[in-house]
């Protein structure tokens, strides 16, 4: 790939990322006697509390169990509030037979936030035909935000603030994108800003917090056949319907633009190939892949679910689950730049826990 | 999908389609309230306090980061943190820190739209409205997707008295972001200025609801409750005003703006001791001249002249220092001088400079009031008329107009203006409302 191709790819990435950018407005005092109102609150979903950050699927410390972890609320406590929405269902779906239809759905729901800031949650499981419809669930347990709770069937749950496990040199990413866009000269990086792997490399997320729903359940319930292969994705559903959806990291970010991003967030994985197959193939071909390879990769990426062999050690780079420490961004860079950029030169955080709830304690 | 968080600003793009969702229902609680043996003590804390702590933590963390490496993103984020600290706590020095951090970001990438809009926000907060407007307009002209830049330009235009320009900006924002609480709040403010207080209150109520649904929290959410408190106060509903301020304080307990607002509502309800206590809590956080003046007035009203004079002396000290504080609180100082018969010269000097920097209707009002104190009644009339050109339903504007009419010997007009002022908000000020009433009674 020529340098200009790499840059064009990064630019494409940047346009995608820009749509996901978030500006909040915690400010808003009156410095003196004028309006000084809050800045715009611009969650792409229209609801900061329903914004999904990441989904993780990996083997628990007890090897007979599997962890499903859903992070939401970017930069929780500063950009996003600390509490969950009481009118949003936070859903983790599991497909057991490869048809991209959920056979199990775990739904976490929250009470309104009390005056003292506390909030309770419940975890409900829906199985079989009830998983897509979210009808007739079985409540597995309840707890308070910020605390763990036991679930029926020897599982457990946590919902609340944690250290964000995600790592990425966002400054370099934005610097390269901005540089390309500002100069409008293909092949010339704006070296006033940041570039990947430069001496100023840093992990922007190293000091941020996120909200996390962490479920640890028996692996046997997730897989009903000998193959042990499952597909996992997560959704947030509000009063007006599905708000956000995530499977593998950054798929929507990279491949979809504008209205397509919203459509992707609001549909089901079963529709992914029909609705997005051709655009994914086209994007991949623009990244330098031939038609056949593009088609192969598109069929791996769609439907957008995290595929995982239950009981195995997760490896996100190999498309088998996603552990907290998996450097999925490096893998993603490799795919979209067709191997020209293979790392952002930052790595895993040091605060992951070997035990439940696995995500590090919140920075404080 | 991992939101590659730019974490900074609205100026960054939003697909309009993402706002297609209707606002959430406020009371849809479908969770069961569970009991758990795992409940950890101390996890829950009022969101406002948690927010304050998080800003300070992140400031420390990012101050460390900028020593470890040079990244415009870190400077921008730090600038945003300093700005938020200044806005929520009244710590004026933090604006200078924000300015410096953002200049560092711009030294690396001069055209960075986020850094430019954040810098404009700092300039707006420090009353350099012309620069704020220029920055907002420049960024928006370069990229029409930078809605935060448009918001900044509109807000600055409003303070510069360019009401049609502000209205256009807000209308464009409302089309791009239907249901955005931040935009509805601006439209509410504009409606109030234009004398449509009913629309203003409707928009403010919707703004608070939408902002809460969209994830506003802490002082950023309390601001909306305070906006509604102001509107309720201005139409004389002090009980509603108090209730809105109490809601703001439940969201953000140390929010000095709401503490002072609570004091104002309680004072209007003739609950002088409670009002004084609320003002003193606000003053302990940030000793703004308008807080001190109100506290002094309340102390005077309750016969504690020593306490009153102490508060007034503090204001005099602020005014005489020629500090950043004196500049930012210029209007409060000018009004204080006139209301308390301090120094007509100084009042006029301050009000005149303030009007130059910010020629909005309240700038003309303060200028009119200072001219009145100097016996320049004809000029005061002209300025007062300019202050009322939008038809703003604000008792203070009407009171000033009425007193100027008295001085000009136009008793009939004075009666109309003072009557309307007192009908609108019978206890609009601890001392001035009484003067308005006494003047009205004494009219021939």
Rg of Cα set of chain B = 23 Å
- Number of alpha- plus pi-helical segments of chain B: 23
Number of helices in the DSSP assignment of chain A: 9
Tell me the series of helices and strands of chain B, N- to C-terminal: HHHHHHHHHHHHHHHHHHHHHHH
> Overall 3D geometry of chain B?
globular
Rounded mean pLDDT score of chain B: 88
- β-strand percent of chain A reads 15-25%
Inertia-based shape of chain A: globular
Structural class of chain B comes to mainly alpha
Alpha-carbon distance between the termini of chain A?
44 Å
Oligomer description: heterodimer
Provide the number of structural domains of chain A: 1
Report the radius of gyration of chain A as a whole number of Å: 20 Å
- Judged by helices, strands and strand pairing, the structural class of chain A is alpha+beta
